[in-house]
User: Fold these one by one.
Assistant:
Number 1:
Amino acid sequence: MTFEEIKQKEHLYYAKTFSRFDRCFVSGKGCELTDLEGRTYLDFFGGIAVNALGYADPELTGAIANQAAKLIHISNLFYSLPQTELCERLVKGSDFARVFFCNSGAEANEAAIKLCRKYFFDRGENRFRFLTADNSFHGRTLATATATGQPKYSRAFRPLPEGFTYLPYNDLTAMEEALQAPDVCAVLLETVQGEGGVLPADPAYLQKAAALCKKHGVFLILDEVQTGMGRCGTLFSYQQFGITPDVVTLAKGLAGGVPIGAMLCSKALEDTFGPGDHGSTFGGNPLACAAANVVVRRLTETDLLAHVQKAGAHLKARLKGLMDRHACLKAVRGLGLLVGAELDPSCPGREIVAAGLEHGLVLNCAGHNTLRFAPPLIVTEAQIDRMADILDQLLP
Ligand SMILES: Cc1ncc(COP(=O)(O)O)c(C=O)c1O
């Protein structure tokens, strides 16, 4: 099929949920993608911060092929070696006691929401409310779209689940006041609002929020769907904020592109879910876990995290350098290899992204007209330099 034929058929048959860019990628190697017409691109998007090890990583593709040849799926009614290995790796590399696997970030957050509510239900306490942040993003299911502090994601889907209150991000006074309500069960936050425009939390805010949660006996859930799994230069980004949440959610990079989500909880919550309380047919199946074991191994047993820190610093420095030459670049911010460059409203990010494709560069624009850079974690400094040189030509 030619690109035009694919496009026509997509317009005929696919749900009208995405406004796609005019490219169809067919393969990749490292940080480079190839489209249907054979043109190559430097990838600073990573399939929305997913493709942690880049494309065609031999260890990852080998593990997937190997597992696929043995057993793709068996359900969670049986024990599984790849899943057990992954649980152990995640628990031993973190501050958590238990792991639950699902298939996406939204599902991981759903699991966290259900877990925290059930904890208080079991104790006969009427605590069900979640405090979340304005401008946050937690997913597209009804509960997670409601948890998301951006009404555009939920307003058409009423009635929405009750028990969600939105607070200004980084506003401790608002948090302190809201925690006085007797029905709060948890605070749900991102360490860096990725979809919201790569906006990092103030460390003092997260530290105080964690202390307030403890004081009021409510749980702190960190949504690390985008920021976790090395994206920010540490296995979990909360490790850079001097806090330990009660629950953390993961997805995106965890299996390097194979769909998986995970919800990790502390010892205090480990007995909350019993058999039948929650579940998933596919969640953490042998194929996804075999892939995730490779990603977690690379993050914990090689120098990949140190590389992310170094490459992330280089990326930020190059983007900050461009600020002197392009007045439309308003701010550069982020952690590790999750970096945002905010553009002036006169310079629409979507146009820069489209122009990038013409110049062999895959970019993305997130909230607040911010270019979001989330390349594979293996990106080299030479590739960052190439990207910055292209961007230098694209920006007015
Ligand atoms: C912080 C955060 N939480 C949740 C989600 C939802 O993840 P998924 O699309 O896998 O359901 C996303 C997706 O962008 C995210 O960035």
Number 2:
Amino acid sequence: MFTGICKELRRIFVAVGMTAAVPLSAWAEGVQPGTNMFEPASKPAGEIFGLALLVLSICAGIFIVVGGMLLYAIIRYRRKPGDTSEPPQVFGSLQIEMAWTVVPILIVVVLFLASARLIFAIQDAPQPKKSISITLVGHQFWWEVRYPKYGIVTANEIHVPVDKATYFKLLSADVVHSFWVPELAGKTDCIPNHVNTTWILPRKTGLYLGQCSQFCGAGHARMLLRVYVDTPAQFKAWIKNQQKPAVEDPAVAAGREVFMDNACMDCHEIRGTPANGRFGPDLTHLASRDTLGSGTVLNTPANLREWIKDPDHFKPGVLMPAMQLNNKQLDEVTAYLCSLR
Ligand SMILES: [Cu+2]
């Protein structure tokens, strides 16, 4: 009987482990560095983690007390062999009933106050003058990233400086999405026609992975978000490069023509060219990004060509159509996009 239960439990653990491992292995091509909500690297995430530990320890305390008393009662008052007498019949006790009413109320009040205090501290934090502002717009199934102060538009990969607050204005172009970068901040929804805000104050440079955490359609699972926390010098250099209009390299003029002669330009903007579509990601500095399709695959020339040929192959449900270009056009437009550093 006991080994049977053990076997059953092991089966459940393995099944749970497998379901967790499948999405991880799907990203194992080096695209997905992984994320860990138990390792906060930014201010609101750290405070939320602290609160979670407080709640967890209070609940663990309750579990130990209740479980301990239950165990004690089961062992101490179990029926002994040969004992057929009736146990003492107790009808209510004011003290005990008071205790198990008042103590839980006090615990709930403590949990409520601790949570409410932190929610308001994060939600209503006034934006410091020297902070970075980003407008983040969720689209099916990618992120539009705007730095209004710097005049920059990019997609899916956010750069922010370390040890400096960044404030996000969260919007949606279609359905409800949700901003979630576990190591940097809690979840905040991106809702159409409603502005939500959140902020981060990262303490460590590096790459932090996020994910849209609201089911928003067929491509939802591949709507990842990458936040690069840079040193101030790296951040400045990145801003400077992103502010430039697109590179005009005569060597890839044929590919530029393919882009402008096909519907690409109706959906994508390339600053400094006639392409000014807004439906898809801004491609002005596409080659400076590490991934394609909101973190779906690494941005290599081979993947880029395959993406343009058939984006659905990498990202089922994607809203970019396969454009039916021939091999020559594919090579040319890939070379053009690779030049957009
Ligand atoms: Cu989404």
